[in-house]
Design brief:
mainly beta, five-stranded mixed sheet, single chain, Immunoglobulin-like, 0% helix, 45% strand
């Protein structure tokens, strides 16, 4: 729980949502699963996604979109936010969201992982993975995922999570965690479902799931 003492427009206690686990099965929510595909591309025209501020948290915490998507930034909680999106430590875009501001839109034209903070509320964070293909999924509340329409063949598949082991704070006092990664090899056969279990997530050497 984060204790908010800086903005009266936000709840006093804000639950941490970086680590969500189904206790009965140890299923991990919000892991980004990427199947390596060099042959599959998606036309990026007229694609849209949304990132909202709601209760002074970003919703959704983790999502993936295809390259070229227009991201709508929406204020749903009445607080004032300044969104700051980074990729590999470099600023990709910024946006002010006030209660009466119109929806802001930002095109996502660089592939890879975006880390989004709020410069006014250090507990607010979201992740957006921008992919040039659609063989990507986010694990659900049960820790499960589905990737459809994969041709037969052998592939590398990986699961990336923002992590839960604290490695310190950034200059603004935000908690930083060590990203976790598990990589598997999988064989897909025609007209058969293929099951993959990620049960050995270890510290990742990169913050980009596709690297």
């Amino acid at each position: 729980m984060f204790a908010n003492a800086t903005d009266h427009a936000c709840p006093y206690g804000i639950g941490q949502n970086h680590l969500l686990v189904k206790q009965e099965t140890r299923g991990l929510e919000n892991a980004i699963v990427v199947l390596d595909r060099q042959d599959r591309r998606v036309m990026p025209t007229r694609l849209q996604a949304e990132l909202a501020t709601d209760g002074c948290t970003f919703v959704p915490r983790v999502q993936w979109v295809t390259l070229g998507t227009s991201l709508a930034l929406v204020n749903k909680d009445g607080a004032v936010h300044h969104l700051h999106a980074y990729q590999n430590g470099n600023t990709q875009f910024e946006a002010d969201l006030t209660p009466d501001s119109p929806t802001a839109r930002r095109p996502l034209v660089v592939p890879g992982l975006y880390k989004i903070n709020c410069d006014r509320h250090p507990w607010e964070r979201a992740w957006i993975y921008v992919s040039p293909h659609d063989s990507v999924a986010i694990t659900d509340s049960q820790g499960q995922f589905t990737i459809k329409n994969v041709p037969a063949g052998r592939y590398r598949i990986q699961a990336w999570h923002e992590g839960w082991v604290q490695k310190g704070t950034d200059p603004a006092g935000r908690l930083e965690f060590t990203p976790m990664l598990d990589i598997r090899r999988v064989k897909v056969r025609d007209n058969e479902d293929t099951s993959v279990t990620f049960d050995n997530l270890t510290p990742a050497l990169t913050t980009n799931p596709a690297d």
